[in-house]
Amino acid sequence: MSEKKVSYNKGGISQLPDDKPVMYRIETEGGRQNYIGIAKRGRVQERIAEHLGEIPGATVRVEQFDSIDDARQKESRVIKRNQPKYNEQGK
């Protein structure tokens, strides 16, 4: 599984791989996770761009998986453990 971290802006997002499903984390400048989600192969950049807003110094970290089911399982574990600010609780 490959992992990549870029700036949370249009230029950074355009550098993300789009060839496999991913779990992504939107993090603040201090490293706090604001949101965790998943995106299907071919839709990674588009899905993350849906969240795009003004968060100075924020980054996006993506982790690639072989299947969307693997990404979904990891997402569930990470949300439960970290309880990001903008994820719905109880997911």
Detailed description of the structure:
By secondary structure, the chain is α+β, with helices and mostly antiparallel strands. Helix content is 27%, strand content 26%. It has one domain (3-82): GIY-YIG endonuclease (3-Layer(aba) Sandwich), CATH 3.40.1440.10. A hairpin with a 5-residue loop joins strand 2 and strand 3. The radius of gyration is 12 Å and the shape is globular. The mean pLDDT is 90.
In short:
The chain is an alpha+beta fold. It has 3 helices and 4 strands, in the order E-H-E-E-H-E-H. It has a 4-stranded antiparallel sheet.
Spatial strand sequence of the major β-sheet: 1-4-2-3
- Helix count from the secondary structure assignment: 3
Residue ranges: pLDDT <50 for 5 or more in a row? none
Oligomer: single chain
Summarize the topology.
Elements: E1 3-7, H1 10-13, E2 22-27, E3 33-39, H2 44-49, E4 59-64, H3 68-82
Antiparallel strand pairs: 1-4, 2-3, 2-4
Label this structure with key terms.
single chain, 91 residues, alpha+beta, GIY-YIG endonuclease, 4-stranded antiparallel beta sheet, 3 helices, 4 strands, globular
